[in-house]
Design a protein that fits this description.
Elements: E1 22-26, H1 30-36, H2 40-56, H3 60-87, E2 89-93, E3 96-101, E4 107-112, E5 116-125, E6 128-135, H4 143-146, E7 161-165, H5 168-185, E8 196-199
Parallel strand pairs: 5-8
Antiparallel strand pairs: 1-2, 2-3, 3-4, 5-6, 6-7
Length: 202
């Protein structure tokens, strides 16, 4: 039996405490995930360049090998992305963000909203996007523990990321509203400046 076959609420390790409610749940779109998180287009372009280089030098066998390798590699990336999308559940409640992640080994990561200093939205095309959560204090989560649900190259203080989510702007607004509501209900513990949402350019 897998760890999350018996979860009391989908995507959550236990029942919600009194007063907590789910505001949104979602998962990555695997097609967008391949392109954005796994750099599928760059990898496909790399093998295409190898094939063109081989053709330019008269190596048609090498070109065919490059094309086959490219299809196999992209296929493996797509398979991994589908598994990520199938096993991942992002949850936003009025108190925390929960990431149920892990293809081979499932785990739940809880990030209280009071620790979210800001969130950066990166639009990926259409209505999809990535939402990086910027913690205000060290949280003990390693980059490898979070990957691929981590903001790229933020190794010192890894930032959990909701990857390739549909209606990303709407989800970002839900998160911002939840943080703002927490500011009002827990006055003195947080400042309004922490409940911010901004659009990232990279």
């Amino acid at each position: 039996m897998m760890e999350y076959e018996s979860e009391p609420i989908r995507g959550l390790p236990g029942n919600l405490p009194e007063g907590e409610r789910i505001l949104w749940q979602g998962a990555p779109d695997w097609r967008v995930f391949v392109r954005s998180a796994l750099y599928g287009r760059w990898i496909a372009g790399y093998f295409a360049l190898l094939a063109l280089w081989s053709i330019a030098n008269g190596g048609f066998g090498g070109a065919l090998a490059s094309v086959i390798a490219g299809f196999v590699t992209y296929g493996l990336l797509a398979l991994f992305a589908k598994l990520v999308a199938k096993t991942t559940v992002y949850t936003i409640t009025n108190r925390r963000v929960v990431l149920r992640i892990g293809v081979a080994l499932n785990k739940c990561i809880n990030l209280p909203l009071k620790l979210v200093g800001s969130a950066d939205l990166r639009v990926l095309g259409g209505d999809h996007g990535d939402i990086a959560l910027c913690p205000t204090t060290p949280h003990g989560l390693g980059y490898l523990m979070l990957w691929p649900h981590a903001r790229p190259f933020k190794f010192g203080l890894p930032q959990p990321m909701l990857r390739a989510v549909p209606d990303a702007a709407g989800v970002a607004q839900i998160l911002a509203d939840a943080c703002s509501a927490l500011v009002r209900t827990e006055a003195g513990e947080r400042t309004p400046a922490r409940a911010t949402m901004k659009e990232a350019t990279a």
